[in-house]
Amino acid sequence: GISGRPLTITVTLPARMTAFYFYGQPDRAATLVVTATLQNGASSGPVSMSADSQARYLGFYGRDGAYLHSITITSGDAFAIGEFGMSRGIGRPRRHEGSARPAARQS
Questions:
Q1: Which of 21, 23, 50, 78 can bridge 27 by disulfide, Cβ–Cβ 3.0-4.6 Å?
Q2: pLDDT tens for each residue of 77-98
Q3: Which pTM value belongs to this model?
């Protein structure tokens, strides 16, 4: 099986994305720690997910017009991601990436 081996998924986003979220959940009945990291190194930090509860929200947004290009999701075991959402920026492209950071869960 694939248990115990670090798994990585990289989500490459369309151009001019300023926000992105997804929900994640372990593939097996267990607790799992997942980390999501943007192309600029901003990270969700370790996020605990349990197969016995609902899927867990993780989201990012760009500050000062920064665009998100990719998000790498890493875990120690199999997991599922879904219910994606994203927002496209408006206006002219920025010459710099600015900063992007994790978003708090929306109520």
A1: 78
A2: 888 888 889 998 765 555 444 4
A3: 0.74
CB 34 within 8 A of CB 79: yes
Distance of CA 42 to CAs 14, 76, 95, Å? 19, 20, 19
- Using DSSP bridges, classify how beta strands 7-26 and 68-75 pair: parallel, antiparallel or unpaired: antiparallel
User: If you search the block for the tokens 């190194």, which residue do you land on?
Assistant: 41
Strands 7-26 and 47-50 come out as unpaired
Question: Closest Cα to residue 38, out of 57, 61, 15, 64?
Answer: 61
Cα 18-87-41 angle, rounded to 5 deg: 35
Residues 38, 79, 9, 49, Cα dihedral to 10°: 10
